[in-house]
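Data deposition worksheet. Section B asks for the primary sequence of the deposited chain exactly as it was used as input, without tags or linkers unless they were present during the calculation. Section C holds the resulting structure in token form. Section D is free text for depositor observations; keep each observation to a single sentence. Incomplete worksheets are returned to the depositor.
Section A, Depositor: J.P.
Section B:
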Amino acid sequence: MSFWRKIFGYSQREIWHQVAKDKGARFIFGTAMEGDKIEYKVKDNFVTVYITTKGNSWYTVFESYINQTDLFVDKLYINSLKKKGITVIPLKETEGRDYYFLQMKDEGIQADSVLLKERMDFFGNAIEKALK
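Section C:
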């Protein structure tokens, strides 16, 4: 372990790359305009994880689009998702297909591999339960 690594620890990019590898997900290197991402699959739906800022706060964002025909639409379940901090937004597509956009934001987990894995599992399980 190098001198600087002992002082500062692993970078967020290194942590995310390792988490993606551990979870069988895809790590996508970002650019200056768009940060790194992790993509993983839950059944036939992709979940994207990325970091965004709002003011002085950093948020780790989990997002997925789910085709409405694949979703078990149950108001109680959607309300339970909302109580767990997952935003559920119905969307209309121009091709006549309806989708739900699911999003969850967490503050301060971008450099914590254990918490990031737990939240990926939590969000993935919420999507699995929502699908038929």
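Section D:
The chain has four helices and six strands.
The beta strands are 26-28, 37-42, 45-54, 57-67, 86-92, 98-107.
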